[in-house]
Amino acid sequence: MPDIIHLLPEYLANQIAAGEVVQRPASVVKELLENAVDAGATQVQLIVKEAGKQLVQVVDNGAGMSPTDARMSLERHATSKIRSTEDLFRIRTLGFRGEALASIAAVAQVEIRTKQREYDTGTLLLVEGSQVTSQQPTACPDGTSIAVKNLFFNVPARRNFLKSNAVEMRHILDEFQHVALANPQVAFSLYQNELEVFGLPAGKLSQRIVALLGNGYKEQLAACEEVTHSIAVKGFVGKPESSKKSRGDQFFFVNNRFIRSAYLNHAVLAAYEGLLARDTHPFYVLFLELDPKAIDINVHPTKTEIKFEDEKTVYAVVRAAVKQSLGLHNIAPSLDFDGDVNFAPIRPLRTGKGTGLVPTEADDHLPAATAADRAASSDGYRPDALAASAAAAPRRPRPACQQGHRASPALIPIPAATATSASCRRVLPSRPAGSWKLSTASWASP
Ligand SMILES: Nc1ncnc2c1ncn2[C@@H]1O[C@H](COP(=O)(O)OP(=O)(O)OP(=O)(O)O)[C@@H](O)[C@H]1O
Ligand SMILES: [Mg+2]
What we know:
The protein is α+β, with helices and mostly antiparallel strands.
Protein backbone atom coordinates (compact mmCIF):
# COMPACT_ATOMS: atom_id res chain seq x y z
CA MET A 1 0.00 0.00 0.00
CA PRO A 2 1.42 3.45 -0.86
CA ASP A 3 2.27 5.92 1.94
CA ILE A 4 -0.67 8.16 2.63
CA ILE A 5 0.58 10.70 5.18
CA HIS A 6 1.58 14.13 3.90
CA LEU A 7 2.16 17.58 5.36
CA LEU A 8 -0.74 19.99 5.08
CA PRO A 9 -0.12 23.07 2.96
CA GLU A 10 0.61 26.11 5.13
CA TYR A 11 -2.61 27.97 4.28
CA LEU A 12 -4.67 24.95 5.39
CA ALA A 13 -2.66 24.42 8.57
CA ASN A 14 -3.18 28.11 9.36
CA GLN A 15 -6.91 27.90 8.75
CA ILE A 16 -7.18 24.91 11.07
CA ALA A 17 -5.11 26.61 13.77
CA ALA A 18 -7.20 29.76 13.35
CA GLY A 19 -10.26 27.74 14.33
CA GLU A 20 -9.05 27.72 17.94
CA VAL A 21 -8.53 31.46 18.22
CA VAL A 22 -11.09 32.93 15.83
CA GLN A 23 -14.59 31.62 16.25
CA ARG A 24 -16.53 34.74 15.39
CA PRO A 25 -16.06 38.50 14.90
CA ALA A 26 -15.99 38.96 18.70
CA SER A 27 -12.82 36.83 18.85
CA VAL A 28 -11.14 39.31 16.52
CA VAL A 29 -12.36 42.18 18.69
CA LYS A 30 -10.89 40.55 21.79
CA GLU A 31 -7.49 39.90 20.22
CA LEU A 32 -7.14 43.33 18.65
CA LEU A 33 -8.24 45.18 21.78
CA GLU A 34 -5.86 43.14 23.91
CA ASN A 35 -2.99 43.92 21.56
CA ALA A 36 -3.80 47.62 21.78
CA VAL A 37 -3.75 47.51 25.59
CA ASP A 38 -0.50 45.51 25.58
CA ALA A 39 0.99 48.18 23.31
CA GLY A 40 0.38 50.76 26.06
CA ALA A 41 -2.36 52.67 24.24
CA THR A 42 -4.23 55.36 26.15
CA GLN A 43 -6.89 55.75 23.46
CA VAL A 44 -8.50 52.88 21.62
CA GLN A 45 -11.21 53.02 19.00
CA LEU A 46 -13.20 49.99 17.91
CA ILE A 47 -15.10 50.22 14.64
CA VAL A 48 -17.45 47.45 13.49
CA LYS A 49 -19.67 47.08 10.45
CA GLU A 50 -22.32 44.42 9.97
CA ALA A 51 -21.66 43.10 13.47
CA GLY A 52 -18.03 42.58 12.53
CA LYS A 53 -18.79 40.35 9.57
CA GLN A 54 -17.81 43.09 7.16
CA LEU A 55 -15.29 44.98 9.30
CA VAL A 56 -13.60 44.91 12.69
CA GLN A 57 -11.07 47.68 13.06
CA VAL A 58 -9.10 48.74 16.12
CA VAL A 59 -7.16 52.00 16.11
CA ASP A 60 -4.77 52.69 18.98
CA ASN A 61 -2.19 55.27 19.95
CA GLY A 62 0.17 52.69 21.44
CA ALA A 63 3.81 51.87 20.74
CA GLY A 64 3.33 50.95 17.07
CA MET A 65 5.59 48.54 15.16
CA SER A 66 8.69 48.91 13.04
CA PRO A 67 8.34 47.80 9.40
CA THR A 68 10.04 44.48 10.18
CA ASP A 69 7.98 43.85 13.30
CA ALA A 70 4.80 44.62 11.38
CA ARG A 71 5.68 41.86 8.93
CA MET A 72 6.79 39.50 11.70
CA SER A 73 3.59 40.04 13.69
CA LEU A 74 1.73 37.97 11.10
CA GLU A 75 3.89 34.90 11.53
CA ARG A 76 2.66 32.08 13.72
CA HIS A 77 4.41 31.90 17.13
CA ALA A 78 5.86 35.37 16.63
CA THR A 79 5.61 37.57 19.72
CA SER A 80 7.44 40.37 21.48
CA LYS A 81 5.97 39.34 24.83
CA ILE A 82 7.86 36.24 25.95
CA ARG A 83 11.27 34.73 25.18
CA SER A 84 11.75 31.76 27.50
CA THR A 85 9.90 29.11 29.46
CA GLU A 86 10.46 31.14 32.62
CA ASP A 87 8.63 34.06 30.99
CA LEU A 88 5.57 31.82 30.69
CA PHE A 89 5.31 31.94 34.46
CA ARG A 90 5.62 35.69 34.85
CA ILE A 91 3.19 36.85 32.21
CA ARG A 92 1.90 40.36 32.75
CA THR A 93 0.66 40.99 29.21
CA LEU A 94 -2.67 39.83 27.81
CA GLY A 95 -1.10 38.15 24.78
CA PHE A 96 1.91 35.86 24.78
CA ARG A 97 1.30 33.07 22.29
CA GLY A 98 2.08 35.00 19.14
CA GLU A 99 -0.71 33.46 17.18
CA ALA A 100 -3.65 35.85 17.19
CA LEU A 101 -2.69 37.99 14.18
CA ALA A 102 -1.48 34.95 12.22
CA SER A 103 -4.82 33.24 12.87
CA ILE A 104 -6.88 36.28 11.95
CA ALA A 105 -4.85 36.87 8.79
CA ALA A 106 -5.45 33.25 7.75
CA VAL A 107 -9.22 33.72 7.55
CA ALA A 108 -9.72 37.37 6.59
CA GLN A 109 -8.44 40.31 4.58
CA VAL A 110 -6.28 42.40 6.89
CA GLU A 111 -4.92 45.91 6.58
CA ILE A 112 -2.30 47.02 9.10
CA ARG A 113 -1.13 50.64 9.42
CA THR A 114 1.43 51.20 12.12
CA LYS A 115 4.02 53.76 13.14
CA GLN A 116 6.42 54.10 16.02
CA ARG A 117 6.94 57.56 17.46
CA GLU A 118 10.59 57.74 16.45
CA TYR A 119 9.85 57.01 12.78
CA ASP A 120 8.72 59.69 10.32
CA THR A 121 6.70 57.31 8.22
CA GLY A 122 4.66 54.27 9.03
CA THR A 123 4.04 50.94 7.33
CA LEU A 124 1.01 49.73 5.42
CA LEU A 125 0.61 45.97 5.09
CA LEU A 126 -2.09 44.13 3.20
CA VAL A 127 -2.68 40.45 3.88
CA GLU A 128 -5.29 38.09 2.52
CA GLY A 129 -5.68 34.50 3.68
CA SER A 130 -2.11 34.47 5.13
CA GLN A 131 -0.62 35.92 1.92
CA VAL A 132 1.05 39.32 2.27
CA THR A 133 0.00 41.11 -0.90
CA SER A 134 1.63 44.47 -0.24
CA GLN A 135 3.96 46.23 2.20
CA GLN A 136 4.88 49.88 1.73
CA PRO A 137 5.70 53.02 3.67
CA THR A 138 2.74 55.23 4.44
CA ALA A 139 1.89 58.41 6.29
CA CYS A 140 -0.09 57.57 9.42
CA PRO A 141 -0.41 58.68 13.03
CA ASP A 142 1.65 57.12 15.84
CA GLY A 143 0.19 53.81 16.93
CA THR A 144 -1.51 51.01 15.07
CA SER A 145 -4.69 50.51 13.10
CA ILE A 146 -5.67 46.97 12.16
CA ALA A 147 -8.70 46.49 9.92
CA VAL A 148 -10.05 42.96 9.54
CA LYS A 149 -12.41 42.71 6.60
CA ASN A 150 -14.75 39.95 5.41
CA LEU A 151 -14.02 37.43 8.13
CA PHE A 152 -14.05 33.81 6.88
CA PHE A 153 -14.18 35.02 3.24
CA ASN A 154 -12.13 31.94 2.35
CA VAL A 155 -13.90 29.49 4.68
CA PRO A 156 -17.56 29.75 3.60
CA ALA A 157 -18.64 26.92 5.86
CA ARG A 158 -17.49 28.88 8.90
CA ARG A 159 -19.03 32.11 7.65
CA ASN A 160 -22.34 30.30 7.35
CA PHE A 161 -22.10 29.31 10.99
CA LEU A 162 -22.14 32.91 12.12
CA LYS A 163 -25.31 33.95 13.89
CA SER A 164 -27.57 36.94 13.24
CA ASN A 165 -26.07 40.42 13.48
CA ALA A 166 -27.84 40.96 16.78
CA VAL A 167 -26.24 37.88 18.33
CA GLU A 168 -22.78 38.58 16.94
CA MET A 169 -23.02 42.19 18.12
CA ARG A 170 -23.90 40.99 21.62
CA HIS A 171 -20.70 38.92 21.66
CA ILE A 172 -18.71 41.92 20.47
CA LEU A 173 -20.18 44.11 23.19
CA ASP A 174 -19.24 41.47 25.78
CA GLU A 175 -15.61 41.51 24.68
CA PHE A 176 -15.58 45.30 24.54
CA GLN A 177 -17.00 45.42 28.06
CA HIS A 178 -14.37 43.07 29.43
CA VAL A 179 -11.43 45.02 28.09
CA ALA A 180 -12.98 48.41 28.91
CA LEU A 181 -13.75 47.37 32.50
CA ALA A 182 -10.27 46.00 33.04
CA ASN A 183 -8.64 49.19 31.77
CA PRO A 184 -10.55 52.23 33.00
CA GLN A 185 -7.37 54.30 32.64
CA VAL A 186 -7.67 53.88 28.86
CA ALA A 187 -10.25 55.83 26.81
CA PHE A 188 -12.32 53.54 24.58
CA SER A 189 -14.89 54.24 21.91
CA LEU A 190 -17.06 51.92 19.89
CA TYR A 191 -18.57 52.75 16.52
CA GLN A 192 -21.17 50.46 15.02
CA ASN A 193 -22.06 51.12 11.39
CA GLU A 194 -20.60 54.60 11.79
CA LEU A 195 -22.65 55.46 14.87
CA GLU A 196 -20.84 55.99 18.14
CA VAL A 197 -22.27 53.50 20.62
CA PHE A 198 -19.81 54.14 23.45
CA GLY A 199 -17.42 56.98 24.17
CA LEU A 200 -15.70 56.14 27.42
CA PRO A 201 -13.24 58.70 28.77
CA ALA A 202 -10.31 57.51 30.87
CA GLY A 203 -11.31 57.52 34.52
CA LYS A 204 -11.88 55.43 37.58
CA LEU A 205 -13.34 51.98 37.77
CA SER A 206 -16.58 53.18 39.35
CA GLN A 207 -17.03 55.72 36.55
CA ARG A 208 -16.29 53.09 33.93
CA ILE A 209 -18.86 50.72 35.40
CA VAL A 210 -21.55 53.38 35.35
CA ALA A 211 -20.60 54.57 31.84
CA LEU A 212 -20.70 51.03 30.48
CA LEU A 213 -23.53 49.46 32.38
CA GLY A 214 -25.80 52.39 33.17
CA ASN A 215 -26.53 55.07 35.74
CA GLY A 216 -28.60 52.63 37.75
CA TYR A 217 -25.36 51.24 39.13
CA LYS A 218 -24.37 54.51 40.79
CA GLU A 219 -26.28 53.75 43.97
CA GLN A 220 -25.71 50.05 43.86
CA LEU A 221 -21.96 49.66 44.12
CA ALA A 222 -20.31 48.49 47.29
CA ALA A 223 -16.52 48.80 47.24
CA CYS A 224 -14.71 45.58 47.97
CA GLU A 225 -11.13 45.16 49.07
CA GLU A 226 -9.15 42.44 50.79
CA VAL A 227 -5.41 42.15 50.64
CA THR A 228 -3.45 39.19 51.95
CA HIS A 229 0.21 38.32 51.47
CA SER A 230 -0.56 36.14 48.45
CA ILE A 231 -3.63 37.69 46.84
CA ALA A 232 -5.41 41.00 46.56
CA VAL A 233 -9.10 41.25 45.75
CA LYS A 234 -10.49 44.64 44.75
CA GLY A 235 -13.49 45.91 42.93
CA PHE A 236 -17.18 46.42 43.45
CA VAL A 237 -20.12 44.22 44.27
CA GLY A 238 -23.78 45.08 43.87
CA LYS A 239 -26.07 45.54 46.82
CA PRO A 240 -28.34 42.52 47.15
CA GLU A 241 -31.46 44.44 46.15
CA SER A 242 -29.88 45.21 42.78
CA SER A 243 -29.50 41.54 41.91
CA LYS A 244 -31.09 40.53 38.62
CA LYS A 245 -32.94 37.59 37.18
CA SER A 246 -30.37 37.33 34.42
CA ARG A 247 -26.81 36.39 35.19
CA GLY A 248 -25.26 39.09 32.96
CA ASP A 249 -23.12 41.51 34.88
CA GLN A 250 -20.59 39.36 36.68
CA PHE A 251 -16.93 39.88 35.94
CA PHE A 252 -13.76 38.35 37.30
CA PHE A 253 -10.37 39.61 36.26
CA VAL A 254 -7.18 37.89 37.27
CA ASN A 255 -4.10 40.04 36.79
CA ASN A 256 -6.32 42.25 34.64
CA ARG A 257 -7.43 39.41 32.36
CA PHE A 258 -11.15 38.60 32.13
CA ILE A 259 -11.77 35.00 33.14
CA ARG A 260 -14.76 32.76 33.63
CA SER A 261 -14.84 30.71 36.80
CA ALA A 262 -17.83 28.82 38.16
CA TYR A 263 -15.73 28.11 41.25
CA LEU A 264 -15.10 31.77 42.08
CA ASN A 265 -18.68 32.65 41.21
CA HIS A 266 -19.65 30.16 43.87
CA ALA A 267 -17.38 31.94 46.34
CA VAL A 268 -19.19 35.22 45.68
CA LEU A 269 -22.62 33.61 45.97
CA ALA A 270 -21.56 32.03 49.25
CA ALA A 271 -20.86 35.53 50.59
CA TYR A 272 -24.35 36.66 49.58
CA GLU A 273 -25.93 33.67 51.24
CA GLY A 274 -29.37 34.52 52.58
CA LEU A 275 -29.33 38.00 51.06
CA LEU A 276 -30.56 37.37 47.54
CA ALA A 277 -34.09 36.99 46.34
CA ARG A 278 -34.77 33.61 44.78
CA ASP A 279 -33.24 32.99 41.35
CA THR A 280 -31.50 36.34 41.23
CA HIS A 281 -27.85 37.00 40.55
CA PRO A 282 -25.71 39.71 42.07
CA PHE A 283 -23.56 42.15 40.16
CA TYR A 284 -19.80 42.06 40.66
CA VAL A 285 -16.62 43.33 39.08
CA LEU A 286 -13.75 41.81 40.99
CA PHE A 287 -10.06 42.10 40.28
CA LEU A 288 -7.74 39.45 41.70
CA GLU A 289 -4.02 40.14 41.78
CA LEU A 290 -1.72 37.18 42.29
CA ASP A 291 1.88 36.36 41.61
CA PRO A 292 1.80 35.16 37.96
CA LYS A 293 3.70 32.08 39.17
CA ALA A 294 0.65 31.06 41.17
CA ILE A 295 -1.58 30.77 38.11
CA ASP A 296 -1.49 29.03 34.75
CA ILE A 297 -3.10 31.01 31.96
CA ASN A 298 -2.08 28.59 29.27
CA VAL A 299 -4.85 26.07 29.78
CA HIS A 300 -7.49 27.40 27.40
CA PRO A 301 -7.31 28.48 23.73
CA THR A 302 -8.88 31.86 24.40
CA LYS A 303 -7.20 32.25 27.81
CA THR A 304 -10.55 32.82 29.54
CA GLU A 305 -10.01 29.98 31.97
CA ILE A 306 -7.02 29.72 34.24
CA LYS A 307 -5.70 27.37 36.88
CA PHE A 308 -4.85 28.53 40.38
CA GLU A 309 -2.05 26.84 42.26
CA ASP A 310 -4.01 27.21 45.50
CA GLU A 311 -7.63 27.62 44.50
CA LYS A 312 -8.98 27.00 48.00
CA THR A 313 -7.22 30.07 49.35
CA VAL A 314 -8.40 32.14 46.41
CA TYR A 315 -11.96 30.97 47.09
CA ALA A 316 -11.70 31.84 50.78
CA VAL A 317 -10.26 35.30 50.17
CA VAL A 318 -12.86 36.17 47.52
CA ARG A 319 -15.66 35.03 49.78
CA ALA A 320 -14.28 36.95 52.75
CA ALA A 321 -13.75 40.07 50.64
CA VAL A 322 -17.33 40.13 49.39
CA LYS A 323 -18.73 39.30 52.79
CA GLN A 324 -16.74 42.05 54.40
CA SER A 325 -17.87 44.51 51.76
CA LEU A 326 -21.54 43.66 52.25
CA GLY A 327 -21.08 44.00 56.00
CA LEU A 328 -19.30 47.33 55.79
CA HIS A 329 -22.03 48.70 53.61
CA ASN A 330 -24.56 47.67 56.17
CA ILE A 331 -26.30 45.23 53.89
CA ALA A 332 -25.41 41.93 55.45
CA PRO A 333 -28.10 40.11 57.43
CA SER A 334 -29.07 41.94 60.56
CA LEU A 335 -29.14 40.58 64.05
CA ASP A 336 -31.94 40.89 66.51
CA PHE A 337 -31.78 41.13 70.25
CA ASP A 338 -34.14 40.71 73.15
CA GLY A 339 -35.54 43.66 74.95
CA ASP A 340 -35.95 47.29 74.05
CA VAL A 341 -32.34 48.23 74.01
CA ASN A 342 -31.78 50.12 70.84
CA PHE A 343 -28.52 48.81 69.56
CA ALA A 344 -27.36 51.52 67.26
CA PRO A 345 -25.36 50.28 64.35
CA ILE A 346 -21.70 50.73 64.77
CA ARG A 347 -18.92 52.30 62.86
CA PRO A 348 -15.27 51.52 62.97
CA LEU A 349 -12.89 54.09 64.41
CA ARG A 350 -10.17 53.19 61.98
CA THR A 351 -10.43 54.97 58.69
CA GLY A 352 -7.09 54.15 57.16
CA LYS A 353 -6.28 52.13 54.10
CA GLY A 354 -7.18 48.51 54.43
CA THR A 355 -10.06 49.04 56.80
CA GLY A 356 -12.50 49.00 53.92
CA LEU A 357 -13.71 52.41 55.01
CA VAL A 358 -13.00 55.98 54.16
CA PRO A 359 -10.79 56.70 52.31
CA THR A 360 -10.13 53.30 50.85
CA GLU A 361 -11.58 52.73 47.43
CA ALA A 362 -11.29 49.79 45.15
CA ASP A 363 -10.15 52.20 42.47
CA ASP A 364 -6.77 52.18 44.14
CA HIS A 365 -5.58 49.64 41.64
CA LEU A 366 -5.59 52.42 39.08
CA PRO A 367 -2.27 54.14 38.87
CA ALA A 368 -3.92 57.45 38.10
CA ALA A 369 -6.33 57.40 41.04
CA THR A 370 -5.24 59.71 43.81
CA ALA A 371 -6.84 60.74 47.04
CA ALA A 372 -7.71 64.03 45.36
CA ASP A 373 -9.39 62.16 42.52
CA ARG A 374 -11.47 60.30 44.99
CA ALA A 375 -12.55 63.40 46.80
CA ALA A 376 -13.49 64.99 43.51
CA SER A 377 -15.16 61.94 42.05
CA SER A 378 -17.41 63.30 39.35
CA ASP A 379 -19.86 60.46 39.57
CA GLY A 380 -20.26 61.20 43.23
CA TYR A 381 -19.15 57.78 44.26
CA ARG A 382 -17.38 57.78 47.60
CA PRO A 383 -17.46 55.11 50.27
CA ASP A 384 -18.59 57.64 52.87
CA ALA A 385 -21.37 58.78 50.57
CA LEU A 386 -22.29 55.17 50.06
CA ALA A 387 -22.56 54.64 53.78
CA ALA A 388 -24.88 57.61 54.02
CA SER A 389 -26.98 56.43 51.12
CA ALA A 390 -27.16 53.00 52.69
CA ALA A 391 -28.82 54.62 55.66
CA ALA A 392 -31.21 56.58 53.49
CA ALA A 393 -32.04 53.84 51.03
CA PRO A 394 -35.21 51.80 51.48
CA ARG A 395 -34.31 48.63 53.26
CA ARG A 396 -34.76 45.16 51.95
CA PRO A 397 -37.66 43.47 53.75
CA ARG A 398 -36.13 41.25 56.38
CA PRO A 399 -37.34 37.98 57.79
CA ALA A 400 -39.37 38.32 60.97
CA CYS A 401 -36.54 36.97 63.06
CA GLN A 402 -34.40 39.87 61.93
CA GLN A 403 -36.87 42.68 62.48
CA GLY A 404 -35.56 43.80 65.79
CA HIS A 405 -32.83 46.07 66.88
CA ARG A 406 -30.02 45.61 64.54
CA ALA A 407 -26.35 45.86 64.14
CA SER A 408 -24.06 44.94 61.36
CA PRO A 409 -22.69 41.49 62.10
CA ALA A 410 -19.49 42.35 60.35
CA LEU A 411 -18.71 44.97 62.90
CA ILE A 412 -19.77 43.88 66.36
CA PRO A 413 -18.94 41.00 68.64
CA ILE A 414 -22.27 39.69 69.91
CA PRO A 415 -22.52 38.34 73.43
CA ALA A 416 -24.19 34.95 72.94
CA ALA A 417 -26.59 35.55 75.84
CA THR A 418 -28.22 38.52 74.13
CA ALA A 419 -28.97 36.89 70.83
CA THR A 420 -32.56 35.77 70.46
CA SER A 421 -32.02 33.55 67.52
CA ALA A 422 -28.96 31.44 67.11
CA SER A 423 -29.72 31.15 63.44
CA CYS A 424 -29.37 34.86 63.05
CA ARG A 425 -26.02 35.04 64.78
CA ARG A 426 -22.96 35.09 62.66
CA VAL A 427 -19.52 34.28 63.86
CA LEU A 428 -17.12 36.66 62.32
CA PRO A 429 -13.37 36.80 62.08
CA SER A 430 -11.99 38.57 65.12
CA ARG A 431 -10.80 42.11 64.69
CA PRO A 432 -7.99 43.87 66.50
CA ALA A 433 -9.09 45.16 69.90
CA GLY A 434 -10.20 48.75 69.78
CA SER A 435 -10.91 48.68 66.09
CA TRP A 436 -14.62 49.20 66.36
CA LYS A 437 -16.75 51.42 68.47
CA LEU A 438 -20.42 51.93 69.04
CA SER A 439 -21.72 55.11 67.57
CA THR A 440 -25.12 56.68 67.73
CA ALA A 441 -24.22 59.49 65.38
CA SER A 442 -25.50 58.05 62.12
CA TRP A 443 -26.92 54.98 60.45
CA ALA A 444 -30.12 55.29 62.50
CA SER A 445 -31.97 52.08 63.12
CA PRO A 446 -35.20 51.69 61.21
N1 LIG B 1 -1.72 47.09 18.27
C1 LIG B 1 -0.43 46.73 18.33
N2 LIG B 1 0.53 47.63 18.65
C2 LIG B 1 1.84 47.28 18.71
N3 LIG B 1 2.28 46.02 18.49
C3 LIG B 1 1.37 45.08 18.17
C4 LIG B 1 -0.02 45.38 18.09
N4 LIG B 1 -0.66 44.23 17.76
C5 LIG B 1 0.27 43.27 17.66
N5 LIG B 1 1.49 43.77 17.92
C6 LIG B 1 2.76 43.04 17.91
O1 LIG B 1 2.57 41.87 17.16
C7 LIG B 1 2.90 40.71 17.93
C8 LIG B 1 1.98 39.57 17.52
O2 LIG B 1 0.64 39.85 17.94
P1 LIG B 1 -0.33 38.63 18.28
O3 LIG B 1 -1.58 39.16 18.84
O4 LIG B 1 -0.38 37.77 17.09
O5 LIG B 1 0.48 37.84 19.39
P2 LIG B 1 0.67 38.16 20.94
O6 LIG B 1 -0.18 39.30 21.35
O7 LIG B 1 2.11 38.29 21.18
O8 LIG B 1 0.15 36.80 21.58
P3 LIG B 1 -1.36 36.21 21.50
O9 LIG B 1 -1.42 35.33 20.29
O10 LIG B 1 -1.46 35.45 22.77
O11 LIG B 1 -2.27 37.37 21.39
C9 LIG B 1 2.76 41.15 19.36
O12 LIG B 1 3.59 40.36 20.21
C10 LIG B 1 3.20 42.58 19.31
O13 LIG B 1 4.60 42.71 19.38
MG1 LIG C 1 -2.20 39.33 20.92
